Amino acid sequence: MILFLYDGPESASTTILLAHGAGAGMESGSMTMFAEAFADAGLRVARFEFDYMAARRGGTSKPPPSPANKLIAEFLGAIAGVEKTGKLVIGGKSMGGRMASMIAEKQYKEGNIAGLLCVGYPFHPPGSPQKLRTDHLTPLTAPTLICQGERDPFGTREEVAGYPLSDSTEVFWLADGDHDLKPRKRSGFSHKDHVAAVAARVREWCDGL
Prior knowledge:
Elements: E1 4-7, E2 14-19, H1 29-40, E3 44-48, H2 51-57, H3 68-81, E4 87-93, H4 95-109, E5 115-119, E6 144-149, H5 157-160, E7 169-174, H6 191-207
Parallel strand pairs: 2-3, 2-4, 4-5, 5-6, 6-7
Antiparallel strand pairs: 1-3
Helix pairs in contact: 1-6, 3-4
């Protein structure tokens, strides 16, 4: 049984189904921060956990992330079970966004979702820029918004500039941001400001879907 955690107004015009990253669950500081920011922007957010992460809550062991095919099946189950208001956008943080991106095109063509949102997309493993995870992104027709820090070790601004992303994909860059979009103090930007900027852009993008 999938457990959902909801934030934001029930009358919202868009619901975002948000999956967590590989190492931190739906109630982590990062997931909570983005969910609350999106909710404050007037969006409905539904967080959920993959089974392996839920299992970590009930014991002392820490099972690793499940294989992609299992995570994808669980994401499809979440799409079927979520209580949505208005349009449905799927996405997530890092690995969660990647899993969403692997099912987005079919779900979009079937009319189940309006778009795809990724926060800190893992374009490649850190230190292995040759191991790209972009083949399925190139032919996307589903409206896609990727919010990425300029110095994200999973895909910097300089690296991503050379990737053949589809015309339906927008990358919203956060100056000096890391994988959590957090900038260094010397940059003159703050994490709070970046999160607010992302929430504002996501709301604007959702309104245009």
